[in-house]
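The passage that follows is intended for readers who have already worked through the single-chain material. We present the inputs for a multi-component assembly, then the predicted structure in tokenized form, and finally a short commentary. You are encouraged to pause after the input and sketch how you expect the pieces to fit together before reading on.
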Amino acid sequence: MTSFYLSKPYQPPEAPRNLPLDQPWALFGNISPDLFMKKYWHKKPLLIRGAIPAFSLAKKNASELSSPISAQELFELAGDELLESRLIQSKPWSLKSGPFKRKAIPKIDQTDWTLLLQGMEAHHPTAAAILSWFRFIPDARLDDLMISIAGVGGGVGPHCDSYDVFLIQMSGRRQWRISSQHDLSLNPALPLKILQNFSAEQDWVLEPGDMLYLPPHIAHDGIALDAGCQTWSVGFRSPSFKELLQEGLWRLAESLEDIPELEEKFADPQQKASQTPENLPEELIKQLENKLAGLKLDQIGQFLPGITAYLTEPKQQAYFRGPETPLSPSQFAKKLGSHALTPHPQTRILCLKNEVYCNGEKVTKGQTKPIQEAWRSIAATKKLIQRKSLHGIADSSLYDAYLSGWLIFQSA
Ligand code: SIN
Ligand code: CO
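Having made your guess, compare it with the prediction:
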């Protein structure tokens, strides 16, 4: 199946501006994001009943609110090779990777299976909207939104993740048992990461609209209690220092290309006759040391551009496709006056001081001031409406990003 959803004009949701971070939010059980970050984030679990109040309000009015994405739609998406999907069955445990034909997925009323779909923010505006509620946590930490759909008894088994996660119950009920146990050894006989010994300390049944926040390393086990149980996980990432430094160093090495003086060859007119020709020459070491000091390689400022570029690399499965009939630069400039330009949901953007990095590239490099400002506005608010004309748009990174499908127009 081709990417039906991505090829359709996509209307990303409005990202909220100026979130009231010191006010109570229903999403966090009437505590403020400030307090949530101080007391719980990366520290301890928090269960929030009625985090999405619309579900309980609907129930009070004797109507049922269900997930905005139907089981049928999820099964269709599982057939898309551009989407990362997994099918896990318990009794006995098995793990398969997608894409899946419909008949490879158990029927909704069968038991003990779950289907996991990653990167769902690119496939449904509600999934993207839910991610935008968490934009008080730095964008660099955000990973993606995963949706699980399961039959009764379905789950991925007791395990622990190294990431922070918000588990939002969107359809049916799920029992969550959690533990702060230290024994995190895995059962080596199983094809997926399942704890050898799991001893639950807390046990809850989550109803639609409830949410459970888990910091890394809290063991957990979620079991679907109803057919078609949907849990939406907002996942965060925290790369290891090894990964950050390796990626930073690699990019720093590449950036030496831009320093023509380094083409200069090592010269040793002072070299004396040597009794130890096998040794690396002292003269070479001394000159290299001087060069390194000049490049200030021990200073963080030298690493940050590469690390920022790395953190904006899109996910491996991200798929961008430029517009089928692209606007000319002048049509593009005109449309910017009336339609918002927004990042594709899988586009990653981060700022480092005044510079903006998008999908692994420094998009403010060599750009005019107004184009740089436009990028900063996109990074901050996730949208751009440009009433004044932008000079030199034809050669700009903004127009290039539109042609690549990194930035897309919101429909009017
Ligand atoms: C699930 O949604 O079933 C699994 C989510 C998780 O445990 O991280
Ligand atoms: Co987990």
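Commentary: Residues 329-409 form one domain. The longest strand covers residues 142-150. How closely did your sketch match?
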